[in-house]
Amino acid sequence: MSEFDFDLDHLDFEGAEKKTAQQQLVADQLAAEQAAIEDDSDDCSGGACKI
């Protein structure tokens, strides 16, 4: 067996894909919550400082 032969049969690609999708969903929800409560009290709110 060559050092470049890999046995991928023991890896759970479907499980990893589902876990990653769930983590992305949680991250999206957290980002949406942060955007909803983000403070716009800075001097440039509303784009007043953009040139």
Write a structural description.
It is a single chain. This protein is mainly α and 51 residues long. The chain is built from one helix and no strands. The radius of gyration is 22 Å and the shape is elongated. The model has no long low-confidence stretch (mean pLDDT 80).
Outline type: elongated
Find the structural class using helix and strand composition.
Answer: mainly alpha
Distance between the termini: 63 Å
Rg over CA atoms, rounded to whole Å, is 22 Å
Q: How many helices does DSSP assign? A: 1
Averaging pLDDT over every residue, what do you get? Answer: 80
List keywords for this structure.
49% helix, mainly alpha, 0% strand, single chain, 51 residues
Topology:
Elements: H1 13-37
Summarize it.
The chain has one helix and no strands. The protein is elongated and about 65 Å long. By secondary structure, it is mainly alpha-helical.
